[in-house]
Every structure is written in C-alpha cells, then in structure tokens.
Design goal:
Elements (H helix, E strand, L loop, with lengths): L8 E5 L4 H16 L3 H5 L6 H20 L1 E6 L2 E6 L2 E6 L3 E7 L12 E8 L2 E7 L4 H11 L3 E3 L4 E3 L2
Antiparallel strand pairs: 1-2, 2-3, 3-4, 5-6, 5-9, 6-7, 8-9
Helix pairs in contact: 1-3
Length: 159
C-alpha cells in the first residue's frame, strides 16, 4: 500500500430516450452529409474549409454530449458531466432529490429525471439528472448523504 487514500466512486450513466438518440443521430448524419458542401460549392471561398470543419466539430460535440453524460459519486461529491461540462456538488449540500419531467436544459438525456436541490454560497440551486438506474442512484445518494432519507419518490432532508 502506498499510503494514498482510495476514492470510492459509483458511476451512473444517463438514461437515453430513444427519440432523443434518433434526433441527435439524424442531426449528426445531416451535419456530416453536408460538411463538404461549403468546399465543393465554392460559394464560401476561403471560408469553405473552416465551415466544413465546423460541421464535423458540431457533430462530434453532439455525440460527446449524448454519450458523455453521466453521474458519479466520488468521495464527498456528486460529479455530474454532460459532454465537456462538469458540475461538482458537495453531498452535504444536497437538500432534496425529487422526480421531474421538466424539459428544461440540463445534463440529462431523458425526460425521466431527478431534480437535485442543493445549497451554495449563492443560495439554493437545482440541477436535473437522468440516471439509467434511478433506484440505484437514489440508494447510493442515500448511503452517502446522511442528512437525506428516503421520501415517497426521492430523497428529502431528515426531520
């Protein structure tokens, strides 16, 4: 043993709604199919190559968000990632976790979501997630957040 503290992590990938997967893959196909148009048409001159590259980058970004969205309980934090974006929420700051179907923007690839309310120095904030294993995610959070207890469909602050 080298004396370092091991970090126990629990990984939960995002649930992916089939309709959202289809929409993103259709957009990726369209972006890639039209990537050469700015170059071949010549209408954009020297901007043709950068525009074609932009198509490829946009396609890659969409796939990164779709397949790079997940949630990890790591040490004393919940780490939420959505493609290149990261949020770190202290487990002790979580106030409640409740089901929601809100379509608002969030690091979630499904509308079957959980709304996480947590305290920050700027007041209470919320973030929505959509773990594929919702029951496992809630159980892991309950184990690692002693201030939370199981509620009707989520987790709430202990009385």
């Amino acid at each position: 043993m080298d004396g370092t503290l091991a970090v126990v992590a629990f990984e939960f990938p995002s649930k992916r709604d089939p309709w959202l997967v289809a929409v993103i893959w259709a957009a990726v196909a369209l972006l890639l199919a039209t990537a050469s148009v700015p170059i071949q048409s010549g209408a954009f001159g020297v901007l043709g190559v950068p525009l074609a590259l932009l198509h490829g980058i946009a396609a890659g970004f969409a796939l990164w968000v779709l397949y790079g969205t997940g949630y990890r309980i790591e040490g004393r934090q919940l780490v939420v990632r959505g493609g290149p974006f990261r949020w770190r929420i202290e487990l002790d700051a979580i106030v409640s976790v409740t089901p929601t179907g809100s379509p608002l923007s969030s690091p979630a690839c499904s509308l079957d979501r959980l709304r996480i309310a947590y305290r920050t120095t700027r007041g209470e904030r919320t973030l929505m997630v959509s773990p594929a294993d919702k029951a496992g995610f809630l159980a892991a959070l309950a184990r690692h957040c002693p201030a939370l207890s199981p509620a009707s469909e989520g987790l709430a602050a202990r009385a």
